Amino acid sequence: MTRRLLQRPRRKRPKQRKRRPLRFSPYAWAKLIYLRDRGPTEVGGFGITEAADSRFVTDFVLIKQTCTDVTVAFDDTAVADFFDDQIDLERHPEQFGRIWIHTHPGISAQPSQVDVETFARVFGNCDWALMFILARNGATYAELKQAGKSKLEKLSVGIDFKPEFAASNQSAWEAEYLDCVQEAPLPPLWDLAEWFEDEFAYSEQWPVFPI
Hints:
By secondary structure, this protein is an alpha/beta fold. It has an eight-stranded mixed β-sheet. It has one domain (19-199): Cytidine Deaminase, domain 2. The chain has helices spanning 2-7, 26-38, 76-88, 93-96, 113-123, 170-180, 192-199; strands at residues 22-24, 44-50, 53-62, 65-67, 72-74, 99-104, 128-135, 140-146, 153-154, 157-159, 181-183. It is built from seven helices and eleven strands. Helix content is 31%, strand content 26%.
């Protein structure tokens, strides 16, 4: 009996599907870091991708917004104008309206409860959407939601140097920041204790850079 069992061919384990990481061009990454560090607040916008690769961000675009240290509120008219402009450029929504990017001025990239609720509410009807957060110290968080799947998928993040990329343009980035970002003070009754607890309880290493 033992010999027969040993002679039986081993069952092959099913291969696990390799998760594709979220990748940034050096240009998009440099711009995102510049805008993250330009002021003391969070900033937010959308990642722009090519039609052939929905997880390769080639640019980061700010939307007119009112920001605090812990919140970003997009202007509804500005969002509509952004979508119209992108469609005029013959881009599809999957290329400009599925990757929501924002920064955290603290050391944690972990999404807040507001981030989680906003992601579910705003992108809940999309076939897929991705939330990416970059903290001040370089910590990252990337999460993919797909229609028909209840479980969100966490992704690794990196910079892809293989494709050609544009040079930095800090004067244009500065103009975009000044045009889009309006700082606002925190409400006087804001409970900072809970925010500080969440902000400093979680930290990640610098993002992975795939070869």
